[in-house]
Amino acid sequence: MNARVRDAHINMSHGSGGKAMRALIEDVFLGAFGKAGSDALEDSAILSLAKMGRHGDRLAFTTDSYVVDPLFFPGADIGGLAVAGTVNDLAVSGARPLFLSCGMVLEEGLSVETLRRVALSMRRMADRAGVEIVTGDTKVVERGAADKLFINTTGIGVIPAGIALSAANARPGDAVIASGALGEHGVAILIARNQLALEANVESDCQPLHGLVAAILDACPATRCLRDATRGGVATVLNEFATSSGVGIQIRERALPIHEMVRGACEILGLDPLYLANEGKLVAIVPAPDAARVLAAMRAHPVGAEAAIIGEVTREPTGMVVMETAFGGERIVDMLVGEQLPRIC
Fold it and tell me: Selecting from 2.30.110.10, 3.90.650.10, 2.60.34.10, 3.40.50.620, what CATH number does the domain 175-332 have?
């Protein structure tokens, strides 16, 4: 039988490599992630090359770190965010996500029950995304040396033959599609911090996008570019596409899918929803003849029900994004400079 954690809060012994650390790993992490078998506590996870090879001919490999305050917020928490964020980075590379690692940096004094909730949330999101959390690491730092809990996740996926997505692939005439309502994650975090004095029912859009990406690629294997619009928002993603591809991008303000609650919050605070972080939305660039078919496929998927064509790729101005405003004028949508919001992911 696995050992049980006897302490209510994390202390330095939980990172010492001794019995307390072993109990934490067996009780909280193995209990949540369901890792079993002879390699459950080895120094490395052993993965089947044959299994991976059945899904494609190239590996996708990504890593990210997650810091958010508060740890729990409307619609998600740091655990679900860490899994979904890494799954989505793999998915928009065209890969089928398969395996994740989980590195935890715990601050002395963190509630063990809080850690247990986070681990179980990671397990639920991993099950939803069809991935396994196969290896991990735990470090404990002294009180005040971290903000409760930091998570690093690394992901491995496999890219099917014939899929070649890149930010450098956009061509003049291509259609630009957003997968759904923008800015919800950023506003949800602000409300959770009580930095936005509104009675607003806004939840984070944190969700895995692998199924939506599969639907897009089924509808259009020649899809040019995919990227999830996290920090820096849609504006930053579009600027990255324009710069990498040496093209311009024209978008239409009236076409942007933004819920009124988010739009109102942005107007009150002087924020631009194009720069707000999302944790479950992507931007796709596809050849114009395929745009209607891709849009229909996206709207048929629960994650893409509010997808919209928001613009097109142009020859000029090279490396720039221009928006046609609701009043019929134009303005440059530059890449975010500095921080529009406090750190949220």
Answer: 3.90.650.10
